[in-house]
Amino acid sequence: MESTAIGYWGIATVVVLLIIRVPIAVVLGCVSAAGIFLIYAWRPGMPLETEFALPSTFSLLATTPFEFINSYALSTVPLFIFIGHLAFQAGFTGDIYQAARLWLARVPGGLAIASVVGCGDFSAISGSSVACAATMGRIAVPEMLQYGYAKRLAAGSVAIGGTLGSLIPPSILFILFGVFAEQSIARLFVAAVIPGLLSLVGYIVVIAIWTRIAPHHAPSPDQTAAARERMLALRAAAGRCWSVLVLFVVMIGGIYLGFFTPTEAAGVGAGATLFLGLASRRLDAAKILEAIQESVVQTAMLFAIAISGKLFVVFIALSDIPSDVLALITQGEPSVFLVMGLIVALYLFLGMVLDPLGIILLTLPLTVPIVEAYGLSLIWFGVIVVKLLEVGLVTPPIGLNVFIIKAVVGDRIPLETIFRGIAWFLLADAVVVALLLAFPQLSLFLPSLM
Description:
Blueprint: H1 3-19, H2 24-41, H3 50-69, H4 76-90, H5 92-103, H6 110-126, H7 129-146, H8 151-162, H9 164-167, H10 172-181, H11 185-191, H12 193-213, H13 226-257, H14 262-279, H15 285-319, H16 321-332, H17 336-351, H18 356-373, H19 378-392, H20 400-409, H21 415-438, H22 441-448
């Protein structure tokens, strides 16, 4: 049997199993192992030879995971996860949100804008969209509902703000993209700064327009004791969180200026966050232990998925599908605009039915060779991919962040109401994606100065 045919059947099997919600690690690992075995055992024009295939298959299954995990770059992942959990346990994110809430109280839609800003701040130290949506959902949505905000605005602003965890560095998706596409994680982090800020500003503009068109969706909170309370809140938040914000600037600035690698930056960040939490007496042994436990569980889950994803990359490479697809595309000589349009459409479609990790591991073995063949920057492409994965986090029917917010708010807000609230923000995402595609320098300017 032709190896490409085995590869195509394997991809189809993976897609079907992921759609019916079989765990990603199980799907990619099992399908890859079976596919590698069949490629070795069922050579074209030959009968099935299991004895010949077993040694080669077991050798790959034994060496590939170890060689992949034994990676300096991947040690960044647990460190950034730990930073996020420590910051959550210390309550740093709540301080930032409360200060933004009070200072934006007079602005139409101020609570929703504060929620998005809080999501951006939390994203700068967590690297996880799910953690960002879950944390800010608990803090911001109940408060907006208490002040009479429309349910779709309250839930939609936090759900969309949570997606910034995928784009604003540090981002776990950028780390995985860099590892699988063999690109500089430092350059990917720096390349995402301007697109992340563009997305943040776009969401704020949407809230401003929304509340101008429908001011009853965002009533102004009570303004009594406004000036003194805002000043006290800002002073309290500054006293507790200025160092964390400076820490983010130091980490990303240090990476940008070449003072240290992303892994070293993550180590500095984890140590400094722990020190700040202890110095401010907001962390104790129980909270630190809980942060460690949560980090270990999340890291183990991510690494299990990443190992199976690496096996899938090996399977796709052995099937020779990338060369087959590349030859098919270049034979027709389509324009780069058509190719990128099809890739964008592919990611948007997969985002409706699969989670981001599944998409990135499933598609990179196919899309990266195509992008390289057209001479396009993989750093720029990485930003495009992560931005599209960010959109997939809130698009129906499987919008992961929407379901996270639903789990947080319970029966107070129907699922369809949250999706309706997302619709306005998707217009901003469409504009940002168009700008990133039309002007690659938005992503490449800062890395070019490194």
